[in-house]
Design goal:
Two copies of one chain form a homodimer.
Chain A lengths: L2 H6 L5 E3 L8 H9 L4 E4 L5 H14 L4 E6 L5 H10 L4 E5 L7 H6 L3 E6 L2 H10 L3 E5 L5 E2 L7 H11 L4 E4 L5 H9 L4 E4 L1 H4 L8 H9 L5 E4 L6 E4 L2 H11 L4 H8 L3 H7 L23 H20 L6
Parallel strand pairs in A: 1-9, 2-3, 3-4, 4-5, 5-6, 6-8, 8-9
Antiparallel strand pairs in A: 7-11, 10-11
Helix pairs in contact in A: 2-3, 3-4, 6-7, 8-14, 11-12
Chain lengths: ~325, ~325
């Protein structure tokens, strides 16, 4: 049996990334109901909003689901208390040290996964006692590693560094890409962008439309002097890009960024002034579809790609 | 039969990239003798040097080999005349428009392949009448595309854009990575870094040693205001990086770069002042091995990875 399916008690080793402004209870429960693992993205929620989403998610699915908690926010303690109170079975942590919360969560019987962008941090995760790792490459949307290691380069290195169950993330929006990363050593995948554009995603419809229209080169890693973030190349990006090329200081760029830009763009649909986070794989996403259709296609294409190899298409 | 093997009349769809300061006749003939396709890298050779390498390569192998010609250099006409004179059967062009030389080469009966970093340029290649395409991702060493599309993101898009035989490049240093890119739609691979570090590579031994010691994050895409190039993070890189972060102009950065930096670093072994071009996959390369051993491992690991899928390891 697949190690990820076993760990989470799910049918397919497909995790829906807990994305800010996209991953509410509707998206998470839909993915879990289809046999994947849905994650609520706590990064864009006040604790009381998160609590509401957890309660609604529980009502909408009897399957396992989880919460993604970026550790850089100030209200992490309240968030963790809510997660424990409602007995959420799985927590993905990111953007911080795995040492900080893994023990506390494990003591409560919660399965813990941490997101990394290097095998160095994969080692730290193993030492901290996490149950699995997400290794996310440069092509991923939103927050990103400083070393800019791509998924193709990253997965073999992380696979070599740890025996923990390993999820590949970044650039995966098809069954073929899923199989490709599993050939590289991943046990399953975490998919963001392809679910950000799902009907059940809470992203603003205008943002979803932008995603379906993006071509190659439509995103770029920006804000490198603050926390590297992959953004759609909209008007706001151009401002940031010009400031960076002009050698502006971190403080000046922070001033330009201000507060609430991601909400403005991704949730409120301000396509010019907002910060729009999405992965390179957006170039392959051309439709807004319901989760069940997305899951069905992923699995069919994965199985088809596997069959092609079994049919010796790739021998010479 | 594999479309790449058929096109080039070779045994394995493995092309050795024509890299500056690494890919002389010794490397190219060794790869061709092992059943792949060796390429002489004309980018770092005066026309008369190239002629010498072609003659020696012909003497060292009776298998097909080719020449890689970056079209940005001034002596391209003389280079092409030498290629035609010696009836080199295959030419890979890069860093320029495929329209410029494809017709001329095809008229002489030469098989033409062009290197691209986007599906937009893949379309241009098809229009120009090339026989095959190399699609190279962000993780590749040396010169690189402006859109920063990674191999995992690039191959599916290019595969969709053209029916031409397709070689994946960037981040491929193992049989597993080879299979992964073929699952994504490539018909074969072009491998650079793993051959740059081969015994038969003409790179300076000290540069090869650096490559085997690099970890993740040991390279970075730099020189973005000139022509984006992936470099080892040595002292010269740090100078460039600081200048770029400080907002220096293209002219100032060109001044910093000067001339002959790549030769100084890669061929003469000046590890501090030289420009050292290598891909992210260097993190996976730990030994200086002869080409026959590299090819043997690539093919064994590819076949093993294929077997693992055939053994249903990946079904759930």
């Amino acid at each position: 049996m697949n190690t990820i399916c076993k760990l989470f008690n799910i049918k397919y080793p497909i995790i829906q990334g807990g994305m800010v402004w996209c991953s509410g209870w509707k998206l998470a429960s839909a993915v879990s109901n289809c046999g994947g693992l849905g994650l609520i993205g706590a990064g864009s929620m006040h604790p009381e909003t998160l609590e509401e989403h957890i309660v609604k998610c529980k009502a909408a699915t009897d399957k396992p689901f989880g919460v993604n908690v970026p550790l850089l926010y100030s209200e992490t303690e309240r968030v963790m208390d809510i997660i424990a109170k409602h007995e959420v079975p799985i927590v993905f942590t990111s953007a911080g040290s795995p040492k900080k919360w893994t023990g506390w969560l494990k003591n409560k019987g919660i399965t813990v996964v941490h997101v990394v962008s290097s095998s160095f941090f994969a080692g730290k995760c193993e030492a901290a006692g996490v149950d699995a790792i997400v290794a996310e490459g440069f092509e991923a949307g939103g927050h990103n590693g400083r070393e800019e290691t791509t998924t193709l380069s990253l997965i073999p290195s992380v696979r070599k560094a740890t025996t923990l169950p390993l999820l590949a993330a970044g650039g995966i929006g098809s069954g073929e890409a899923m199989l490709a990363t599993m050939v590289l050593g991943a046990d399953g995948v975490q998919i963001g962008s392809a679910f950000a554009v799902a009907e059940e995603s809470s992203a603003h419809p205008d943002f979803k439309k932008v995603i379906t229209e993006l071509g190659e080169g439509g995103t770029k890693l920006a804000l490198k002097k603050l926390a590297p973030t992959r953004l759609v190349k909209n008007a706001f990006f151009e401002q940031v890009d010009e400031a960076e090329k002009g050698g502006k200081s971190p403080e000046e760029i922070r001033g330009l960024l201000g507060r609430g830009r991601a909400k403005k763009g991704m949730f409120e649909g301000d396509l010019d002034a907002g910060e729009l986070e999405i992965g390179q794989v957006a170039a392959q996403l051309n439709e807004i579809l319901p989760v069940d259709k997305i899951m069905e296609t992923l699995i069919a294409d994965y199985e088809n790609a596997t069959q092609n190899i079994q049919g010796n298409k790739f021998t010479f």
